[in-house]
């Protein structure tokens, strides 16, 4: 009892394994990436001509000479037959294609039915190379005079995904009350003979993105199309936000790249574009300066300006002391590694240089280029030295006007200083020796810095 139960469990396990590897054939004639092996296993006919668009066809649909002439992939097996005393043939080996009924006539030598006794023909599928193959083999027997007609059909599902080029089925046929039997061996094509003939990364047909097998491009997972000429965008969750719903190319990919057909940013990588090696394809191709400026921890590291690793960003930032000679450092592609940046921190512009190696960001401040605090004047940001100059100019002008009025009036104050001693009335319309022009312009260092 225990042995029988163990055997039963083993057969169930084998059945489950086979079921898990079963081939889905419901859409094999319409899926673009169907392979020759899949086509044959599902009963299709394959065209190995690279120029043919429709590779796999159902034998029941349009198989005239106009489709794939001379390139139809079919299994070729030499028929082997041997006659016996009772059956002709007594042993027969032939091809049984999936879903195609195979009709085999067996001649009965010297057979005479016994009057009053009905001798029915019998069959037994007694051997198959597939664990559950017997359930996919259907046999029908017809007796016509002294001939026995055997109609055998191997249904789809017989071949598994791991099947070799051929699988086999043995069917034993006999007549009730007759000892002798006939054996029919069916060779079932479950793969293509050309499957082993691979042209790797074929340039002519597959654009270098796939292998040419049985006249068809087997594309890499990220490619599709007859010639692997298209990107496979299915099930991709890494699209760039700036590529969706925007027709303005300047807004896409931060102006540092272009959107591909999968709505993914492809960043520019020209050596002539400063900092192009740092454009982030996973973040709309943002440059290194933008990446730093929009991160609070990076800015905190800049403000602290403490040399060495900065813990604000988990130790991935390193503050380098200002060293102008480092600015000419170049990578293996002769691109400058340091890029010029600036950030507005609480009204003050901090000028710095940055570079990135792997996940580590290196920054160094140029304190001499930093501007003063910013104030807002008529909608424009003007630095404090400029504002002080304007205030001084206004104050000087007011003082000059007041002095003139007081001098002209009767109650004008006496000129106590020596500089006033030689002022004559006519000098009031000339140059005031006490007047010095105010500072009316200031060179903003930020005009030279990359914002």
Report what the structure shows.
By secondary structure, this protein is of the alpha+beta class. The chain has four domains: 21-196, Immunoglobulin-like; 241-283, no CATH class; 288-370, no CATH class; 383-409 and 425-446, no CATH class. It is built from six helices and 26 strands. The strands form eight sheets. It has a five-stranded mixed β-sheet with strand order 4-6-12-11-8, with no helix packed on it. Strands 20-21-24-23-22 form a five-stranded mixed β-sheet. It has a four-stranded antiparallel β-sheet with strand order 5-7-10-9, with no helix packed on it. The longest helix is centred in the last third of the chain and has 25 residues, at 384-408. The chain starts with a helix and ends in a 43-residue tail after the last helix.
């Amino acid at each position: 009892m225990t042995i029988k139960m163990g055997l039963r469990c083993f057969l169930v396990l084998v059945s489950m394994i086979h079921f898990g590897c079963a081939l889905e054939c419901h859409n094999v004639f319409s899926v673009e990436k169907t392979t020759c092996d899949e086509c044959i296993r599902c009963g299709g006919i394959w065209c190995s001509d690279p120029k043919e668009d429709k590779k796999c066809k159902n034998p029941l649909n349009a198989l005239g000479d106009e489709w794939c002439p001379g390139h139809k992939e079919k299994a070729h097996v030499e028929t082997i037959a041997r006659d016996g005393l009772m059956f002709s043939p007594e042993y027969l080996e032939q091809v049984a294609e999936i879903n195609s009924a195979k009709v085999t006539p067996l001649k009965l030598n010297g057979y005479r039915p016994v009057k009053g006794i009905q001798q029915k023909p019998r069959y037994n599928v007694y051997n198959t190379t597939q664990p559950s193959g017997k359930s996919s083999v259907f046999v029908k027997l017809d007796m016509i005079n002294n001939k026995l007609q055997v109609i055998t059909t191997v249904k789809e599902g017989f071949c598994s995904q791991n099947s070799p080029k051929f699988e086999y089925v043995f069917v034993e046929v006999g007549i009730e009350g007759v000892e002798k039997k006939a054996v029919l061996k069916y060779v079932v094509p479950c793969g293509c003979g050309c499957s082993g003939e691979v042209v790797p990364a074929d340039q002519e047909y597959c654009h270098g993105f796939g292998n040419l097998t049985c006249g068809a491009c087997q594309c890499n997972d990220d490619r599709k199309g007859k010639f692997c000429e298209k990107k496979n965008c299915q099930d991709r969750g890494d699209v760039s936000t700036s590529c969706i719903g925007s027709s303005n190319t300047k807004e896409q990919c931060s102006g540092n790249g272009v959107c591909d057909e999968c709505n993914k940013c492809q960043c520019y990588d020209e050596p002539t574009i400063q900092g192009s090696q740092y454009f982030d394809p996973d973040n709309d191709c943002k440059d290194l300066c933008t990446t730093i400026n929009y991160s609070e921890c990076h800015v905190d590291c800049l403000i602290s300006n403490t040399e060495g690793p900065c813990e604000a960003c988990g130790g991935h930032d390193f503050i380098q002391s200002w060293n102008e000679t480092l600015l000419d450092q170049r990578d293996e592609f002769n691109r400058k590694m340091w890029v010029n940046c600036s950030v507005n921190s609480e009204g003050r512009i901090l000028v710095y240089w940055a570079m990135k190696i792997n996940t580590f960001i290196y920054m160094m401040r140029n304190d001499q280029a930093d501007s003063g605090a910013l104030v807002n004047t008529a909608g424009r940001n003007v630095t404090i030295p400029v504002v002080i100059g304007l205030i001084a100019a206004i104050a000087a002008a007011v003082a000059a006007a007041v002095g003139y009025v007081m001098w002209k009036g009767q109650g004008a104050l006496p000129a106590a200083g020596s500089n006033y001693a030689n002022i004559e009335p006519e000098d009031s319309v000339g140059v005031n020796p006490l007047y010095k022009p105010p500072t009316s312009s200031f060179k903003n260092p930020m005009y030279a810095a990359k914002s």
